[in-house]
Each structure stands twice: as C-alpha cells, then as structure tokens.
Design goal:
Elements: E1 9-13, H1 18-28, E2 33-38, H2 41-54, E3 58-63, H3 69-83, E4 88-91, H4 106-134, E5 137-142, H5 155-175, E6 180-187, H6 193-199, H7 202-212, H8 221-231, E7 243-246
Parallel strand pairs: 1-2, 1-4, 2-3, 4-5, 5-6, 6-7
Helix pairs in contact: 1-2, 1-8, 3-4, 4-5
C-alpha cells in the first residue's frame, strides 16, 4: 500500500532498536525523508543504513537524550536545519523504572515525569507550529496498555503514560482542523529489550504471554510497525484522537 507520504519528513525517536527501529524501517519503505533520534549513535547508524536500503529518500541520525530537555531542543533544531520542518512525528521513548507506589521515591516521580511525559510534550511542541503552517501533520505517540488497564509494579508508567494520552486527546481536538492528526498506541507485549528487562528472561516472557494474552505469544516489532505507519499516512486522515491497542487481545475491556 502506498501511504502517500513519499518525500515527507518523518522524525522517529527511540529509533536505535525495538519498536522505534521497526517503525522507522516501515516509514523508510514509503520513501520518506527520515530523521532518526536516540542516545545510542552506533546502533542508530546501523538502523540508518537499513533504512536507506529499505527505500528512504534521505536518512540522518541525531543524538538525543529524552531525560535532558536542552538535548531535545538541539535535536529538533538539527532536524529542521537538515530537512526543513517535520511532517510526521513518531514519539517513542523508554519506559520508567519498575516499582509499586510504596517503592517509588519523589525523585523517581520527577525523573519519570521528564522522560515519559515532558519529553513527549517537548517533541510535540517542537513540531506542531510548522505543521499548522502547512496544514498537514501526523503525530503518533507510542505508549502502553497501562493507559487502559494499569499494570502491577509499574506505577510510574501507569500514571504518566495515562497523562500523556489525556493531553494528546485534548490536543487532537484543538488542531484537527489544521489537517493534523494525533493518535496514540497502547503497546502490548512486544519482544523488545524493555520487555525482557521487565520479565528477566525470554522464557519467563514467553510463559507469561501464554498465560495472559489470548493470541498466546508476544509480538515482534515488525508486526507492530505497519499500523503505526498507516496512521502516519494519507489514508488515516480521518483518524484522530484515538488510542489504539496493539496487544494480541491483552486488554479485557470492551473498548480496549
């Protein structure tokens, strides 16, 4: 399917591995100009080579630390200098530390606020004005099923990812008539380093998936990426303000 975004400028954060890399490669296949951003430059350059081979019309790698607000601004300025303004933003970042409410200190809340909520809003703030000027834009934030069904031992993710989705829903209504769509993905169990960190081993991850997920397994990042790419395209111009689960049926609610 041609998503109608050939030549558009797409920025993907957290693009050095896992979900971010998979989404970046799916967008590369659509012929976008691709800005990849992450902390790990060596891994990012590997993804950049794969993106060129996949069909991206141009690819650049940018270092960014989402825990550092000035770093985000420097990265956004670099992207704008290299490509012009961003048309498509896929806002993706690592999750906050594990822990129950009782195990979580004020400093943990402060750190999680920056990386899980504030950094995502900084990215969005950096691209929306130019999208409004062009009257076209796509914003997709990768969040978690925690926004629909809180996850035990992940109080920080439960709190700040839900706050992000609420902010995105509000924003979507404010800028819909500017030709900009804003959506979120409630990410389920996908085989990434983050999920391995939470479960400890691949074996335990697989056992938990078999118990808890109707499909009976975790997803690969490549199964996750096509829907995200679709939301970035012309065919999704009437889809906005949504939080869409990619979770193998994990969320039990009717509106999951």
């Amino acid at each position: 399917m041609d998503l109608g975004i050939r030549g558009k400028v797409a920025l993907v954060t957290g693009a050095s591995a896992g979900l971010g890399a998979a989404v970046a490669l799916a967008l590369a296949a659509e012929g976008v100009q691709l800005a990849l951003a992450a902390r790990r430059q060596d891994k990012l350059l590997e993804v950049a080579e794969r993106a060129r081979a996949a069909g991206a019309s141009e690819v650049r790698a940018f270092k960014v630390d989402l825990a550092d607000r000035p770093s985000i601004r420097v990265m956004l300025d670099g992207v704008n200098d290299a490509f012009g303004n961003v048309d498509v933003l896929v806002a993706n970042g690592g999750g906050p530390r594990q822990g129950t409410y009782g195990q979580t200190a004020p400093a943990d809340w402060d750190a999680a606020y920056q990386t899980t909520l504030r950094a995502m809003l900084d990215l969005i703030d950096g691209v929306v004005p130019s999208m409004r000027d062009k009257r076209w834009g796509r914003i997709v934030a990768l969040t978690s099923t925690a926004v629909r069904q809180p996850i035990p031992n992940l109080v920080l993710s439960n709190a700040f990812r839900t706050a992000l989705v609420a902010a995105l829903k509000t924003l979507s209504g404010e800028i819909a008539r500017d030709g900009i769509t804003v959506n979120a993905i409630a990410t389920g169990r996908v085989a990434t380093d983050r999920l391995r960190e939470l479960y400890g081993t691949d074996e335990e991850m697989s056992r938990a998936a078999e118990r808890e997920i109707p499909i009976g397994r975790v997803a690969s990042p490549q199964e996750f990426a096509p829907l995200v790419a679709f939301l970035c395209g012309e065919g999704a111009r009437y889809v906005t303000g949504q939080t869409i689960a990619i979770d193998g049926g994990l969320i039990r609610g009717i509106f999951g």
